[in-house]
Structures are given as C-alpha cells and as structure tokens.
Amino acid sequence: MRHHILLPTDFSDNAWSAALYALNLYASEPCTFYFSHAWTFLNSGARTHIPQSSIEPVQNKLKEKLAAFKDRAEQESKDRDHTFETIFSEGSVLDCMEVAVKKHNIRLVVMGTKGATGAQEFLYGSNTVTVMNRMRRCPVLLIPSNFEYETPNNMVFPTKFNRFYGEELKFIKEIADLHGSKIEIVHINKKDKLEDKQLENVDMLKTYFKDYNINFNWLTKTRKKEQAITRFIKENNSNILTMINYEHSFVEKLIKEPVIKKMGYHSIIPFLVIPRVD
C-alpha cells in the first residue's frame, strides 16, 4: 500500500523538522509526500486594492521556496520509495488542508509546532491548535520544535474506557506496525473499580490488539490528568503520545485549559491526534 502524507509548511526550521520525522517514520514504506503551503492576505479586504501584477511575484517566490523544500526532501530520501509533490493554495491553512486531504486521499497530516517559550512552556501555534481540533478527515501528527527523530518503539494511548472503539483504532495499529511498537494503554483511576461498560471496552481492546505488544497501566489519580500522563511518558521513555479526538473530547478540554502545552514541554514527543470515526 502506498501512503499519501501531507506536510504543511511555512518554510521554518520547525516545518522541516516535522518533514524529516515523516520521512524517517515511513523510511521503509512506499509514500507520496505532499508539501503544501497556504497563502492569504493578512487583511482579507486588501486583496481588492492590490493588482495581480503585484501579487504574482510574491506567490512565485513562495512557490520557489516550496520547490526548494521538495528538492531538499528528495535528497534526504534518495534510496527510498518516496515521491514528492507540491501544493500551493490560497486560503486559510485548515481550508486548504481539507481540500488537499480529500483530493489526494491523504492518510496522515504531519506538521510542526511552535517552539518553547520561557523555561516551562511549550506553545502550539494557533494554526496547529485549529487543525488538531477541527481536522476530521484524517489523523494529525504534531512534531515538537527541533525534535530529533528516534524510532517510535513505545506508544502511549490514554483512555477512559468509556466509549466503544471503532475504525480509529486501525491507525494505532498502522503506526505500531511500522516499527513493531509497544502500545502502552493508560487509564487514570477515578474510582476503585471499573463499570460494566468500561470492562467491556477493556475486553474489546484486548481482543483487537491480541497480536500486538500491549500493556495496560492503571494510574492512581493523585494529580491532574496531564501531569499523570506526563510523568508516565517520562518514566517509560515513551516516544509517541496518541489520543482519539471525540467531539467535545479530552483533547478539546486540554486545548481550552490549556494543558497540552504542559504535556508537550515535559515529554517533548510527537503527539498523534486521531479523529473519531462515526
């Protein structure tokens, strides 16, 4: 199977780090990577007052940068079954990405985050937060700033066991298959025992992942969830955090609180957000 992967870029070092991660993650897989750039006026009302003759040089310069990113990636993937395309679009980042995902049958979006601010925080850019929370067509893999690739042999999957799992679990399998990753399923205890529905979902996970290296972890709720997950990531040398993004989900609450930045700073690992498949 050939993988189709979208790599949005603003031509920053962060964007290149994310691209490198994607190339290495799928080093042994046949892939087509799409470098995309969404361009728009900062002031949407200004477009009517600027002639096309002034716009074209700006757009052509950005297209040259996009081509240079593509050339650089081709050099990195010389001996791999990787091909590269470029997509230059006009509009918002999310709108342009959704069009590309649908048109090119994209299976995964890989994008960089903003860098650390101060000594204690890791901030996702506004575009990243928007894409993470609103992209419903495919998973999004967020790569921390200047992250150096390491084989993702230990995945962390926090879950409450409250919902029936559907097709979204397939992507956890796909990532695990790439490098034989262990899957650490993490549950933070609120009560002394699970309810019947939760127990049924635990059994479902055991059955679904029966051919995989999985481990169930029961964490006592002695602190906030994000702190418990961060501690688990650090203690177990985990290298990918994955969550399912339900409507009004834990992910959405993390963005609002905002605790994703705390987890991102302390763990410094890629974060895979999988949209709920209804």
From TrEMBL:
This is Universal stress protein. It comes from Bizionia hallyeonensis. It comes from the Bacteria. Residues 1-144 form the UspA domain. Belongs to the universal stress protein A family. Pfam families: Usp. Transmembrane segments: none annotated. InterPro entries: UspA (IPR006016).
